[in-house]
What we know:
Layout: H1 14-22, E1 29-31, H2 38-42, H3 50-54, H4 59-67, H5 81-92, H6 99-112, H7 123-134, H8 141-147, E2 150-154, H9 164-170, E3 178-180, H10 186-189, H11 196-207, H12 214-230, E4 235-240, H13 250-261, H14 268-289, E5 292-297, E6 299-300, H15 305-311, E7 319-320, H16 326-337, E8 345-349, H17 355-362, E9 374-376, H18 386-399, H19 419-437, H20 445-464
Parallel strand pairs: 1-2, 2-3, 4-5, 5-8, 8-9
Antiparallel strand pairs: 6-7
Helix pairs in contact: 1-19, 11-12, 17-18, 18-19
Amino acid sequence: MKAFMDQDFLLETETARKLYHDYAAKMPVLDYHCHISPKEIAEDRKFENITQVWLGGDHYKWRQMRSNGVEEKYITGDASDREKFQKWAETLEKAIGNPLYHWSHLELQRYFGYYGALNGETAEEVWNLCNAKLQEDGMSARNLIRQSNVTLICTTDDPVDTLEWHDQIAVDESFEVQVLPTWRPEKAMSLSRQDYLEYMDKLSEVSGVKVESFATLMDALRVRLDNFAKRGCRISDHSLEYVMYVPASDEEIEAIFAKRLAGKAISHEEEFQFKTAMMVALGKEYHKKDMAMQIHFGVKRDNNGMIFRNLGPDAGIDCIDNYAPSAQMADYLNALAVTDELPKTILYSLNPTDNAAIGTIIGCFQDSSAVGKIQQGSAWWFNDHKKGMIDQMTSLASLGLLGNFIGMLTDSRSFLSYTRHEYFRRIMCNLIGGWVENGEYPNDEKVLGRMVQDISYNNAVRYFGFHL
């Protein structure tokens, strides 16, 4: 029997162990997609206790606590932090096979030096150990980033954001890690939002362009995109129901937008036409600026109305949506490729059954302008567990070039989540090592070592064009 999560955790062969320990483990972390607060980095936040770090905003954990019958007061309510931690510990001991079990214990090992198992009985010991450790200067937000060997972070930001915290970090010579904004114009695309007109007023104000037509909306967004680019932004991010392609004429798009500005309801078809027009227009802008475009799709959000009313979005009540017509995704990419305006694009689906469709589509649009120009993104959200990562990488390897994969991202709001990169690297090295030991690939250490280092870090640096 193997020891619990020891140094060879998830590494089943000698080749896997060598690739991980000698190559992957030594690579820095490039966190090219996350939801960390730039304000907390700028202010170098310190946390009072482990509950603030672990349970504040972590809807992954909230879902499992609800599944364990925990009362909401101990999840997002007014219970004490110690009580909330106890309920999480009692939940975690039941989470065998769940990535949260591995992530939580990797964080306890790497940041707190605790190699035992967290459960209801050990909760008091772990609570005291972690809280004492969190009082040390080395556990502030910036020092946690440094400990994790992170070289660059891309936050997620709205076009109307001031980016003041990024400016503050950029001129602070005491912090060596780059923190760059990522352009996420989701609110500008969401015509059905109740506060859409208020958002248009805000966009008009910050851009200096009065939004009164689709043409002026795009002008306002270009002004803000230029502002992001001046601050080092290299990536955009879009959240879509699916990658739709429902084209309409310029006149039809202007009519749809005018209808919404007048306060009238629009149909689903009209909203998809509007989003298609925006995605095409923005894709061309990204191509001009050599920015990468991330598209996340396949999620149905905010399903539990009662929880949504009480807590709002990102409360742990989202699920996989199994409607994603691959033909429309291909048609959207082609609408940009046919005029040679397709930017570097990363496709993430929440539905793992889309892996093969994505793998075949990306192969249609590769070219010499970038290595691995169109990427399948890493296993995302409900799929960033052992099986999900193996399935995603196996599908990508089967249909494309795994050696050009840009690897893992954190996609988290927590400063302790960098261990997800370790988790990914161990799984990746074990997968590749297994193929080698099965005689499916030569045991060429030089080539293999370079490959796992590239997937761990180097490919992403090259792909996005970061200067590190």
